[in-house]
Amino acid sequence: MSHAYPPEQVEGVYRAIRERRDVRHFAPGPLLEGQLERFITAAHNGPSVGFMQPWRFIRISSMELRRAIHQLVDEERELTAQALNQRSEEFMRLKVEGILQCAEVLVVGLIDKREDFVFGRRTMPEMDLASASCAIQNFWLAARAEGIGVGWVSLFEPQRLRQLCGMPEGSQPIAVLCVGQVDEFYKAPMLELEGWDKRRSIEQIVYENSWGTNGK
Asked: Measured over all CA atoms, what is the biggest interatomic distance in the chain, rounded to whole angstroms?
């Protein structure tokens, strides 16, 4: 018995994966009623190691707080440029966020007291981050399927963002998500279009039996 979806639904899943983009350019306009809730529900349906569900979402409805987050990101943007040395000017020409232009801003964080969750994390405690990343990917794909752009911003100092958002000691912010309408989706990842890097071939990322051996 086949458990596959109908072909057109299968193609829809793969299309969302192919066309998902890390969006930096947003168009004016709010989300439709219920969209944000659907995207967060999709995220909450993500897999998590030991079913710990380590993700928490903070919706930033205060424009004052949004501007403070933008300032924090802009400061880290300058520091990142300095750390890039010879690529600093190239980096500063890139648009790295759309915090002040998008319809919604969410801060995604890992819960406090994560040391209490040992199942699947005894030797790899970072699996809480891996789990939350899966949740964000679900959010991204659901948004793309509904024609909404999402940008994951990671340029910030975590301790300062945690304090701005009133997060408890031991919790950790991992993402600022910009969510909103777009005029169009990039034809390819923006950093690829800008010449920052290029996508590796399948042969470069798949090995067989040992690292660096592709079986051919």
From this structure: 58
Give me the mean pLDDT over the 11-27 stretch. Answer: 98
For 118, the 3-state DSSP assignment is coil
Q: What is the pLDDT of residue 215?
A: 65
Give the N- to C-terminal CA distance of the chain in Å, as an integer. Answer: 34
Query: What is the C-alpha separation between 203 and 39, in angstroms, rounded?
Result: 33
Judged by DSSP in three states, 176 sits in strand
In total, the chain counts a number of residues equal to: 216
Nearest Cα neighbor of 175 from 192, 196, 158 is 158
Provide DSSP, 90-112. HHHTS----TTTSSEEEEEEEPS
Give the 3-state secondary structure percentages of the chain, helix then strand then coil, rounded to 5: 45, 15, 45
User: What's the CA dihedral at 83, 69, 167, 143 to 10 degrees?
Assistant: -100
Task: Return the structure tokens found at 88.
Answer: 């600093």
Strands 172-180 and 149-153: antiparallel
Q: Which amino acid is at 194?
A: E
- So what's the pLDDT on residue 214? 80
Question: Residue 198: phi, psi to the nearest 5?
Answer: -135, 160
- Of 139, 176, 194, whose CA–CA distance to 16 is shortest? 139
Checking if the pLDDT of 29 tops 80, the result is yes
- Which segment of 24-33, 86-95, 135-144 scores lowest on mean pLDDT? 86-95
pLDDT digits (tens, 9 = 90+) for 94-129: 999 999 999 999 999 999 999 999 999 999 999 999
Helix axes 35-44, 127-145, angle to 10 degrees: 140
